[in-house]
Amino acid sequence: MSNTESSTHEGFTTEERAAMKDHAQELKTAARRSSRADKAAEAERDVLAKIADMQDSDRIMAERVHAVITASAPALAPKLWYGMPAYALDGKVLCFFQSAEKFKARYATLGFSDQAKLDEGTMWAAGFALTEVTAEVEARIGALVKQAVS
Predict the structure, then answer these.
(1) Residue 41: what are its φ and ψ, rounded to 5°?
(2) Can you point out the beta strands (E) in 49-140?
(3) HSE value, Cβ hemisphere, 13 Å, CA-based, for 74
(4) What is this structure's pTM?
(5) Measured between alpha carbons, how far is 96 from 19 in angstroms, rounded to an integer?
(6) Phi then psi for 120, rounded to 5 degrees?
């Protein structure tokens, strides 16, 4: 078997390795926190700080997504997940926001884990590209989040 450049596997990208390091740090930080209330408050502060550090368009979208999710599903707990804002139910991530800038993508993403109850027949969307968060998009996000936790 010849070893050509087109057939070599490079492994994880720089961005993926950075996300894994972020996740390892998040787990260490969470383990050091004391009470459940302290952990929840600190986790939300971490999410808001991460959003504040994002570039303009990603930050604006993440702020609006955060507001919609926390208003639509107060049972969800904000937390960082692989360095990005996420929202968990009973400790399991239900949905998350990925900035376009972090992964050098042309759009930000709102994703849902397999814990989300979005089932619709034999195939349904679990990730959504975001280029702008309009009132219509906010309404759709709110409806998806409510469905995901029901």
Answers:
(1) -65, -45
(2) 77-81, 84-89, 92-98, 108-112, 127-130
(3) 1
(4) 0.78
(5) 13
(6) -145, 95
> Residue 20: how many CB atoms within 10 A of its CB?
13
Collapsed DSSP state (helix, strand, coil) of residue 40: helix
d(CA 104, CA 34): 36
Lowest mean pLDDT among 14-18, 42-46, 124-128, 144-148: 14-18
Tokens at 77, concatenated:
């707990």
- Given a contact cutoff of 8 angstroms between Cβ atoms, the answer to whether 83 and 19 are in contact is yes
Distances (CA, A) of 101 to 74, 98, 112: 28, 9, 20
Reading phi first (left if > 0) and then psi (alpha if -120 to 50, else beta), residue 104 is in left
Secondary structure (DSSP) of 54-67: S-HHHHHHHHHHHH
- Angle, alpha carbons 126-95-87 (nearest 5°): 175
